[in-house]
Amino acid sequence: MGFSLFLSFCYIWLSSASQTSTAATVVSDILRPNQVLKDGQNLVSSGQRFELGFFSPDSSSSSNRYLGISYKNIPLTVVWIANRNNSIPGLSGSLSMGSNGFSLFANSSVAIWSVNATAVLKSPILQLLDNGNLVFREENNGDSEGYIWQSFDYITDTLLPDMKLGWKLRNGLHMYMRSWSSANDPSVGEFSFSLDPPETPQLVLRKGTQKRNRWGPWDGARFSGSAALRSNPVFIPMFNSSIEEVYYTFKIVDQSLLSRFVVTQDGLIQYLQWSKNSNEWAIMVTLQRDSCDSYMVCGPYGNCYDGPKCECLNGFRPKSPVDWARVDWSGGCVRKWELDCGNGDGFVKYGGMKLPDNSHLAASRNLSLEECRSVCLGNCSCMAFTVIDIHGNGGDCVLWFDDLLDMRDFSGGGDDLYIRMAKEELEAIADAKRDRRVKVIVTSIICSVTGMLLVGIIGWYTCRMRRARRWRTAESLNSSHRDFTEETQEEDLELPLFDLETVSAATDKFSFKNKIGQGGFGPVYKGVLPTGQEIAVKRLSQNSGQGINEFKNEVIVIAKLQHRNLVKLLGCCIQREERMLIYEYLPNKSLDNFLFDETRKKLTWKMRFDIVMGIARGLLYLHQDSRLRIIHRDLKASNILLDNEMNPKISDFGIARIFGAEQTEQMTKRVMGTYGYMSPEYAMSGHFSVKSDVFSFGVLLLEIISGKKNWGFYHPGHDLNLLGHAWKLWNEGKPLELMDALIDESYSENEVIRCIQVGLLCVQQRVEDRPTMSSVLLMLSTENAMVRQPKEPGFVTEASSMGMDTSSSSGKNPYTANEVTVTILDAR
Ligand SMILES: *[C@@H]1O[C@H](CO)[C@@H](O)[C@H](O)[C@H]1NC(C)=O
Ligand SMILES: *[C@@H]1O[C@H](CO)[C@@H](O)[C@H](O)[C@H]1NC(C)=O
Ligand SMILES: *[C@@H]1O[C@H](CO)[C@@H](O)[C@H](O)[C@H]1NC(C)=O
Ligand SMILES: *[C@@H]1O[C@H](CO)[C@@H](O)[C@H](O)[C@H]1NC(C)=O
Ligand SMILES: *[C@@H]1O[C@H](CO)[C@@H](O)[C@H](O)[C@H]1NC(C)=O
Ligand SMILES: *[C@@H]1O[C@H](CO)[C@@H](O)[C@H](O)[C@H]1NC(C)=O
């Protein structure tokens, strides 16, 4: 009390004393003892990035004032508030520094907020740093460990780069985000977003006290089940868990970019970036992707997939089949066989999962999988375990007690979970496995005979293919140690096998009327499974000796991939002479039908842009984000399929290549690909890299904008191909003339021009001049991204795009020129 009186006294004294001297609006970035910041004045950080001052959320009124930190040079965007629950009615607010603390006064007599040091300070200052942190410290101690107080510890609804979401364990400080109540009311709203609990940290969004979304625990690379927060060239997420603190934070490489996470008033977690061109915040990522992210949609032991559908995990059945049939999944699933503790229970492994809620860390740290298993086995209420790397020490044994809640299928990047099962279930699995073993021996022999001509590894994969089974199929870990490790190594390639009869019946014996296309290596049929599911069957021509390699390649590549912009492989059929791939059926067929067909349907600009973004995301996944790194090598309009919502899906991995993490370029003697889409270095010398895919993407992008094919492009005024034509228009300053006349009015000129510019950058002659797919995505999606000026593209005439003299191909009607998939044997 005495202190605040003293402060008030100081304040009165100061405000009368300094009335004349502090008339300027900007004080500096520092407030010293006995200085006062009044409404109308600002502290500005040294790099002019942030400012601290009084504001009203509703700019039309000057009542309800708050002291907050906002960006300096853009329209009011508040990132932190001192008095969010406690507004100041008029312009009388002030922040005043005392000798041992500081206080926010609503008016000369009422302090509504104050911070004091416990120890006596020599020369304290309050400073606004250029990362938006307001710190109270000793002037001669700039070390962040020595801050007496910092605003970063008291997050409002915004997480800035360097801010930590999490816990300081020593003093129990919990730093988490809370939404505003409404657009004009920053007081604490309904939603909170936090990292908890500290031992097995998860990201949790709550409405009040109820969980709405949950991702976690941290598995060494990400929060289990979350995809969006991964590292990329501009954005670096960080997670740290030690005895001192547990936190999530992120850094931005390009310091000129403004970006932040925010929890909105409706409970969405968004990552935003400031767009200089359109002068607004662009939403880059929303953490909630689909309804499988909603907390516990499928009930206990339910597994959510394809947002939202629910299935019971293997070994479980719906608790209430009636409700389940009515798609009321909330009751979840129960065991087929009850557990009988200590009496033959064992564990079954489920791969590709988002881990369940309510995990616990085993008492002893750093256990192996085997040790963790016996800890879990030893406690009857332990229902599941896994080993993940929460603390960066190689492995933490994580246990689950009671029902397993809030799981989802996450085949692309999920974790392994070992679930306790009753003896009967394990026996059923062991029986099924014995049957499979017999088949394996038989098929291995066949494999080694037919595999003689094949590269060893492919043969090996094929043999494994034959042992294929539905992914997530249960594996018993109960038997012996040897069995245990064997099974852990074999998780990779698991794909359903269809039998020939099923596929034949589905396609009406491969009848002509069901044929929907002809791929490079054989016909494609539409079919309907007994379940009603529509499928596309790609059948290898039996006489195509070459196709078998490509077939195997495709199986190996795509079986490991899962992404919404890649076509989904449902299974394969290898029986007698038949080799078939079974895909999901996409009703809208391929993109070329929409782009180049005479009778094409109209694609609006928005649809085209969404298609471009989808392809770019799919390609980025192949190049960088998937478990494998893959070069597609045959990206073209006819290999982009469209689902009924016109989402693009990349297909045809017949000649794709897997490349190692350290490997950036490969060479081939057999150049395969499609005229018009091949990059110069690939067509001419067989060198390919992710940048050759970028070239093809650039061609595709320009085709999507122009509605014209690159290969077979015809213009009465010159003999350039589409790339040359686009470059010519770009140089002449009329890029918009490239646009397809069928594009409706509702396009943004800036966006189209940016797309053309990015397209031209992708088709640059020199590999080094082409951007990577991650920068392509960034450039396409952010208006303010710096996009370089393109130079002349590679292959500006059709003849040059074959890497050879092609006088013979001229004179054809350009719009009916067939697309040719070629194989050029290198002459060397
Ligand atoms: C600051 O110190 C004064 C007097 O010592 C006390 O009344 C006030 O409650 C303190 N404020 C905080 C936030 O600790
Ligand atoms: C604001 O009020 C909420 C509850 O109404 C409380 O939980 C929170 O701590 C308060 N925040 C501040 C910064 O005073
Ligand atoms: C000072 O502010 C408080 C709360 O904001 C208000 O209740 C009080 O009437 C004000 N006093 C003066 C003298 O303005
Ligand atoms: C994590 O935090 C500890 C202590 O706070 C620190 O020593 C360590 O360097 C941090 N690790 C990373 C990866 O930032
Ligand atoms: C099993 O684990 C639970 C949760 O940690 C604990 O409460 C219980 O005492 C344990 N039971 C035995 C028999 O160790
Ligand atoms: C954990 O165990 C592994 C091998 O079992 C060992 O290499 C590693 O150093 C251990 N880590 C810690 C922190 O004890």
Automatic annotation (TrEMBL):
Q: Could you tell me which residue ranges the Protein kinase domain spans?
A: 510-787
Transmembrane segment boundaries: 440-463
Domain of life per record = Eukaryota
Q: How does it sit in the membrane?
A: Single-pass type I membrane protein
Where is the Bulb-type lectin domain positioned along the sequence? 28-149
Which keywords belong to this entry? ATP-binding, Cell membrane, Disulfide bond, Glycoprotein, Kinase, Membrane, Nucleotide-binding, Serine/threonine-protein kinase, Signal, Transferase, Transmembrane, Transmembrane helix
Q: What is its EC number?
A: 2.7.11.1
Q: Which residues form the Apple domain?
A: 341-422
Pfam families in the cross-refs: B_lectin, DUF3403, PAN_2, PK_Tyr_Ser-Thr, S_locus_glycop
| Gene Ontology BP annotations | recognition of pollen
Q: What protein family does this chain belong to?
A: Belongs to the protein kinase superfamily. Ser/Thr protein kinase family.
* The name this protein goes by in its record: Receptor-like serine/threonine-protein kinase
Q: What organism does this protein naturally occur in?
A: Quercus lobata
Q: Which gene encodes it?
A: LOC115988474
